[in-house]
Specification:
Length: 247
Amino acid sequence: MNNLHGKVAIITGGAVGIGAAIAKELAKNGVKVVINYNSSNQVAQELVASIQKDGGEAIAVQADVSTPEEANRLVETAVNTYEQLDILINNAGITRDRSFKKLSEDDWKKVIDVNLNSIYNTISPALNHISHSDAGRIVNIASIIGQTGAFGQTNYSAAKAGMIGFTKSLALELAKTSVTVNAICPGFIETSMITEIPEEIRKQIQAKIPQKRFGHAEEIAKGVLYLCKDGAYITGQQLNINGGLFM
């Protein structure tokens, strides 16, 4: 799918951070983007306006993708608006960091629902439409934490590791079709999750990264673009974008 012009993509959690960068990058390459958000209405609408100002096509759709009914409504809205669906980017995610001894059942369930169960909730209604595309793409935004684990993140790590396993299994099931399924595993990226970390801890993390810097959301977006545009023979893979922190 060297030419993405006219293709349609849903980006969950697409209003801010990595999701917003992905929406901008795909729109810049001719993709009609459906920006999903849960509570960031004003930011989502501003992003839509920015994309449209630059000549792209975009709409914003509110939906809590941790809920099957709302995820289904998101997909229906995208298809009813654009009459097709080619690309699904599962980017929605939250953290509720606690050491396991302090981790409540609600902290566990909410992170699993938003980060992991949401990909089932979106792919289930979307797959039939994506399968009709000449080159469908599913990209799940996982995390280096799903590969390495991290103190105080048993819930987040489990969800992201589950996303990686899900990606591999679904890729096998769809390998004989035109649909590819891949995961991107970002390292530490300059988003609100990083800027909220105390400066001293930020310095400690940065010192451990071989490239000695945090990544940028636009660099993750470039990885998504590559998989969507030139990734016809890439499926079931983890694309690590982490400055060499995990190899």
